[in-house]
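Run log, item B.
One chain of 462 residues. Sequence copied directly from the ordering sheet:
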Amino acid sequence: MARARVQFICQNCGTVHARWAGKCDGCGAWNTLVEEGTSSGIGSGPQAASPKARKGRAVALTTLSGDIEDAPRITTGIGELDRVTGGGFVRGSALLVGGDPGIGKSTLLTQAAAALAARGHRIVYVSGEEAVAQIRLRAQRLDVAQQPVELAAETNVEDILATIEDGKRPDLVILDSIQTLWTDMADSAPGTVTQVRASAQAMIRYAKSTGAAVVLVGHVTKEGQIAGPRVVEHMVDGVLYFEGEGGHHYRILRTVKNRFGPTDEIGVFEMGDKGLREVSNPSELFLGERSAAAPGAAVFAGMEGTRPVLVEIQALVAPSPLGTPRRAVVGWDSARLSMVLAVLEAHCGVRFATHDVYLNVAGGYRISEPAADLAVAAALVSSLTGLALPADCVYFGEISLSGAVRPVAHAASRLKEAEKLGFAQAVMPPGSEDGSGAIASRSARPEALAELVARIAGSKAE
């Protein structure tokens, strides 16, 4: 009898190795290779081992042009959740939701399940980490216990499929979480790469064949990435991250992949004793505790997908007693802060070599777009000189290494949001599209960063 071949799979990235090694060749992680037999997993078994392959059948080829049908969606009525998903859950799609432990993933999905059940949809909530009694306690705290959501506590994929296929087809199936599921197709332990991949593929196959929407909850690693093989993120139709800081009461649901809608959308929620409450105007939340007279604070007009968001950027520049000054950043890219400091020193004559620099985005918000360069530079110069920036002014623009201010997209939307919140002037790049209203006529358009520094320093003389 032929001996079963053994392979070693990285539990971090899923790379297959012929022999064990201390370091994975794919991702560089240490001590992540686990021995797994080739007789387990997808595409294996007696048929896979047979040298005789089934003859393929020809499929029909078509053209790019043709009739287009909008994806059928299930709207929850929770505006922020529907915005992030692109208008609601798409029938027959699979969605992966990740987030830190205790951030509110189960709370959000319980509220979404109750909202859909109240609209007459059949919702099945399967938990592999909590008992049914625990889910009922959460539902009572959220005041949704009276909604007809069907619950189950099960981890075997075959049992789950047999349960949900009995009776009317469910409109939405929620699995919390994918790391706890296991299938008879794989021999490895639950949570391993093979089990996660096989379980996810079985549930995605069910969603595509029946038209039911499936939501998978995924654990995250200490680096903030969804745990398990990255192939699961490629298999699903959408990936959402639920973010938030432990010291803040708000949560952000962020889209990083969506085959049926735009990416980089965000939904803002506020955590309370009755669950998550959607925040329709997040700019007011991030600017709620703003001190207008304090130096080192600049309001940045940013964009998250199609939504403009105003957030305060705080900078503190203090003399350093150390030979190597500190550079601490919260909510922004530290490498980009180093670039802005270098441009200020090289092209504007502003010296930070003997000062500690601390940068913080208020409210625990995280900024990823380069349009925040101008607001960061304004906050740094304001803190260094001790001069407060105008309270009714917003800043946005990208800074190049030559010191020039480069235009950014969606300038009109940024100005419209700022004017709606009472801001009267803006500092923005030249050449940006003109917005409507008085704020566009009162905006300053510096061509170089040195002009902004001179503008801030000139306010002292006035």
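Observations after the first pass:
- The longest strand covers residues 307-319.
- The chain is about 25% helix and 25% strand.
Flagged for discussion on Thursday.
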